[in-house]
Each structure stands twice: as structure tokens, then as C-alpha cells.
Amino acid sequence: MLIAMLPASFKRLTRRSFLRDTSLAAAWLAWMQRARAADAPKPGDAPPAKRLGVVLAGLGRYATGQLRPALQQTQFCKLVGVVTRRPDVGAQWAKDCGFSAKNVYNYDTMAKMADNADIDVVYVVTPNGLHAGHVAAAAKAGKHVICEKPMANSVAECDAMIAACRDAKRTLSIGYRIHFDPYHQELMRLAQGDFAPFTKMAGEFCFVMGAHEWRIEKKLSGGGPLVDIGIYSFHEACLAANANPIAVTAKEIPKKRPDFFTEVEEGIEWTMEFPGGATAQCRASYNENANHCRAEGAKGWIDLSPAFSYSGLKGSTSRGSLSFPPINQQAKHMDAIAQAILEKKDSPVPGELGRRDMVIMAGIYESAKTGKRVELKFI
């Protein structure tokens, strides 16, 4: 496992000390990113003797439009089943994707996956408020789990999910696809080396929501644009700062469509403070358009726009324009996790990372509600 490969200075680094000590957090993140880059599948790599079988639990837009086609490009895993409330939809997926009809489950029969050797990993792509139960069910069935972001609706749910996978001796990974995109990997590289330290970050991810969907129902979503798309901006700021934030200050943007956004915020903006004085200004909204991030310091800057899309990213640095070959982010993400499982290494995007982000979101919401600066406590 990666822990066994750690430099001697990290041998005593625990989850608790990672969350508590921001200097250790920065060192750990830098080492993990280098290890992930070294382990990433490369063109010409021989295919593995075994490709892990993946089941998609939840067949909404993301599973259908992104994960399903990505699983046609993966080297280390393949689609072998689905979990859905609609037997007819599951049967059609089995026919179209070429897997056995016996690998179609509903949410009440997930326990039966324990007897199915075809299945190694369950990717939970259901609404946020259902993640905790579905992750626990998959782990109890003896399967590794990938959970789409955000991890859950509360820190307590994150803790329960981590414990369920730990007790089952299975890995828990989170759907942080940007870690595997070359533009964001370049930001991480610069944050760790040539341009370090970045001291000023900014990010905004917004779109205009036209029709009602579960993402604006508080029970299912846990929140509005902050948890759905704002998470990209503050997660990127953490990568650029190479540290966990120590405090946040936030305010909700006044609603222009209060009859539509009755349960969650329409928009929100916040400031993050990092050790050493670095800051990040971020914004998320369901009623405007934006897709951008920037990090700068005394040694240089990087700017990505669009920054968080599935494809078509563009960027530049103080040295000039960036240009990388197009990739499938979802395929790279799932392959990296599958490869780690096959090689018995730690996940490159573990559940603890999802928990950290839930702490940050809780702090942002608390600050927006109280109007006060909120210090973040990760343990």
C-alpha cells in the first residue's frame, strides 16, 4: 500500500494529524500527487490480467452521459452491472452494454451482490442525500466503493461511510475527476514547485438552472450550488494552496428567483483563509454563467477558463499558453482507482478527502447564516 512506501518523515502521519496539521497536510498532498502521477496508466502500458467489474448505482445524467461511455475506454475496469429502481431500464442497459441480466439490481437487493464475483466496485451516483446508505450497502456486500461528489449531506454521514468501508476492508474513493485532468495536474505541479507558493486564488462555477430537479431539494441535495458546483472552486483552491483552509467567511447572494429556489441558496460567495496568509475568493450560482479559476503568487500565475468542464479546458500561465491532448476525465479517474485497488495501494482520492470538503462546506454555510468568520476544525 502507499502508506508502506511513504518517506520516513511521513511514517507517523495519521488521518487525524493530516487534518490537524496544515504543514503535514501540504507535504502529504504533494507526495500523494507525485505518487499518483507516477502510477497513472501510460500509453503503451500492457493491459492488466484482470479488469475490475464496476456496477453503476444510479442511472441519471452523469452515469448515462459520462460514466457509461468512459467505461468503454478504461483499461483497468469495465461495466458489469447496474443498480436501478426500474427493471426495464436495467434490462436495456444489460442488452446495450453486453453484461448479464443477473447483474441488474435494485436498491433493496444490493446485499445479493456479495454472491456475485463479477462485481468488484460499486460507483454510487445517486442523489447526495442517499449516498451514505448506498455506500454502506455496497461495502457490506464486500465491494469497493466510488462515491460521487459531494460525499454526503453531513460530516456525520461521511464518518459513517468511512467506517463502513474500513470495517469491510474495502476502499472508499470520491468522484474528484479534476485530479486526473492534465490542466489541473499542471496547476498542482506549479503549486508544489516552480510557482510555489500561490498566495491568491479565485474560482467561480455557475450556470443557469432552467427546470426543477432534485439538486434544489434540500433533503436530497444537502444544499444548492455550493455543494454541486462550488465544491470545484474550493477544492481547486486547496490544491493551489497545497494546504487545508483554516477559516471561511461567506454570504448568500440575494435571490432573483425566490419562487424557484425555495429550499436552497440561489448563489453564494465566500473567502477562504490558508496558513501563511494565502486567500481564495470563490463564487457559485444557479442563476448566472461562469467557469474559471486562477492562482497567483510572486513567482507566477495560472489561469484556467473554462476550468471545470468535462472537456474543452483552456488555460495559460505567466510563461504562456497551455495545451494538452484531450482526455476522458472520467476514464482516467476510474482507471486510477481501479489500478490502486489491483495493486493494493491507497486510493488517490480517498473518503477522507471528501470528508474534509464536507467540513469546509459546513463552515461556509455557517458563516453565511451567522455573518461571522468561521474557523474550520477537521477533527
Layout: helices, strands, pairs:
Layout: H1 2-5, H2 15-20, H3 22-39, E1 52-57, H4 61-70, E2 77-83, H5 87-97, E3 104-105, E4 121-124, H6 131-140, E5 144-147, H7 155-167, E6 172-174, H8 182-192, E7 200-208, H9 218-221, H10 225-241, E8 247-253, E9 267-273, E10 279-285, E11 287-297, E12 300-304, E13 315-317, E14 320-322, H11 329-342, H12 351-370, E15 374-375
Parallel strand pairs: 1-2, 1-4, 2-3, 4-5, 5-6, 7-10
Antiparallel strand pairs: 7-11, 8-9, 8-15, 9-10, 11-12, 12-13, 13-14
Explained architecture:
With 379 residues, the chain is an alpha/beta fold. It has 2 domains: 144 residues, 3-Layer(aba) Sandwich (Rossmann fold); 164 residues, Dihydrodipicolinate Reductase, domain 2 (2-Layer Sandwich), CATH 3.30.360.10. The chain is built from 12 helices and 15 strands. It has a 9-stranded mixed β-sheet with strand order 14-13-12-11-7-10-9-8-15. It has a 6-stranded parallel β-sheet with strand order 3-2-1-4-5-6, with helices on both faces. β11 and β12 form a beta hairpin. α6 runs parallel beside α7 and α8 packs across α10. The N terminus is likely disordered.
The second-level CATH architecture of the largest domain is 2-Layer Sandwich
Shape: globular
- Fourth-tier CATH superfamily name of the largest domain: Dihydrodipicolinate Reductase, domain 2
Q: What share of the residues does DSSP label as strand, in percent?
A: 15-25%
CA radius of gyration: 20 Å
Q: How many alpha or pi helices?
A: 12
Can you tell me the CATH class of the largest domain?
A: Alpha Beta
Q: Classify the helix fraction into a percent range.
A: 25-40%
Main sheet strand line-up: 14-13-12-11-7-10-9-8-15
